[in-house]
Every structure is written in C-alpha cells, then in structure tokens.
Amino acid sequence: MKLLVGTVNGTTSVYRVDGEQALNLTEALDGVGSDLSGLIASDALCDAARKLPAGDATVPVDDITPELPVERPDKILCLGLNYIEHIKEGGYDIPDYPAMFMRTRQSVMAAGAPLVRPGCSETLDYEAELMIVIGKGGRHISEADALDHVFGYTVFNDGSVREYQRKTHQWTPGKNFDQTGAIGPYVVTPEDLPEGAKGLKIESRVGTEILQRSNTSNMIWGVAQTVAIMSEFTTLEAGDLIALGTPPGVGHAKKPDPRWLRPGEVVEIEIENIGICASPIVDEADLPAAG
Q1: Pairing label, strands 209-215, 128-134
Q2: Angle at the Cα of 169 (from 168 to 171), degrees rounded to 5?
Q3: Where does the UniProt annotation place the signal sequence (predicted)?
Q4: 203 within 8 A of 213, measured Cβ to Cβ
Q5: Whole-model pTM?
Q6: pLDDT in tens, 190-212
Q7: CA 138: distance to chain centroid?
Q8: Domain harbouring 117, CATH code
Q9: Are residues 33 and 152 in the same domain?
C-alpha cells in the first residue's frame, strides 16, 4: 500500500495512492486521523484501508501538498557510513559498528518544501537515503524479528552542511540546520516491496545531472540489522524514523571541485518503487521574515 499524508484545500489527510489518483482514508475510515499514527497503531485499520474500494471519491495526486508522514516523530535516528564506496570517498576507515546520529524535528520537512541553504555556509550537500517508519516499538529487538517492527519505507534527503559537520568530531551541527532534511512524500508498506527493501535503485539528481546512483543491496547494515542495533541502546517507538545512510557520489567528494547545492536548483532523490522526493533549494536570506 502506497500512502501519502498531505493537504488539500487547507485540510490535512491520509491518502492511499492508486496510480495518479488518491483515496482520502481520513474521510473514509474512522480512526485514521491526519497523519500515519492511526494506521501505525492498528493492523485492522490498515487492512481496511488496503481493501477499501476507490470508487469515485478520489483526487489527483498532483493536487495534494505533501506533509510529513508522522507529524511529530518521537525520534529521528540516522545511520552514517553505510555504503563502502561512500566511506572510502569520505576518507574514513570501514567500521565494524555503524556511525549514528540524531536529527531534530526542526531539521526535517516534507518533500516539496524548500530545502534551506543557511546564511552562514555555502557547503550544503545532498544525501539520498532509504528511511524506515517504525510500526511496532520495542527494546532489544532481535534481527530475526526486526522486519516485523517496520510499518513502511520512505525517501529521505539528509541535507548536510559539511563545513559545520566537520567542525567537531560529532556531526550534530552539520546535520541539524533547520529545514535541511526532506522526507517523503510516499510511504510504502512492506508487502509491496522486496524483503527489507533490498535491491532497489537509489539515485539523486539535479535536472539531468546524476549525482548518486546505487542500490539498497549495497548497504553494509540492512534494515533488520539496523533496527536490532538501534534497539540495543534505545526503546524504539511507533512512528520513529530511521535513515539508513547514503551511497557514494556526495557533493563534498566530487573532483576536482565540490558540488554544493545552489539556490534555484531542485534536487530529486528517487528510490525505485517508493517515489521521488523533490526539494527546491532556497537561500535562508530569501525566506519570508518570521513573525
């Protein structure tokens, strides 16, 4: 099932996407609510949503403005250095335990919303990533059971301000500038994808310029391993988001010069059978004044 949380005429709803049309599940089924939390909490509601006939009560997908799949996730956990060639291009040693960091809610936004280059640095980079939406929470989840804890899969652009990422050994500053992490727009549930979302083409581009191209089978730590590893140190909760790292081809490693994202461009992240996360790049100075 392909799901989209979005707004039409000022009202945010959950939609089931069927080709170019979308069915409003929030209107059709009691308990769905205005983000994926309702479906995540109820297997019965998910089954009903899958079986619901579309009829004539659909809207064009293009008329829906995407919103975050989960409005306020408790945790946004991120894996780094998960593709060997990306590790090499960054000058790191291949680790035997994954690099991890967290993102704030303010650092992420829905697909289609502007991705903001901060006024303090021009070193805004792109990172195409697969992202998990946790369905069933837990602690000390075994790798054998981990896929049962995944509600669905989405697309993530882990926009990174490299100058600030490199200022300290901890990556937190460079990974948490406001509005630098784009999520969505679609969440696809596991039955419509290969087990663990393996074997999917993953790509980033600006126009016809291909920036990254790889396959999710090239990840060192797959979905099940990542869920198991992260649940060793924290209790995963329904609606948590986990990003799974980026393949080679990031801007800071381009030769002879780095390839930073520039205002006026639109960067697209695509994962096969999930969708395209597109973000226009804007300069922080060009944003409307707050207040």
Answers
A1: unpaired
A2: 80
A3: none
A4: yes
A5: 0.96
A6: 999 999 999 999 999 999 999 99
A7: 21
A8: 3.90.850.10
A9: no
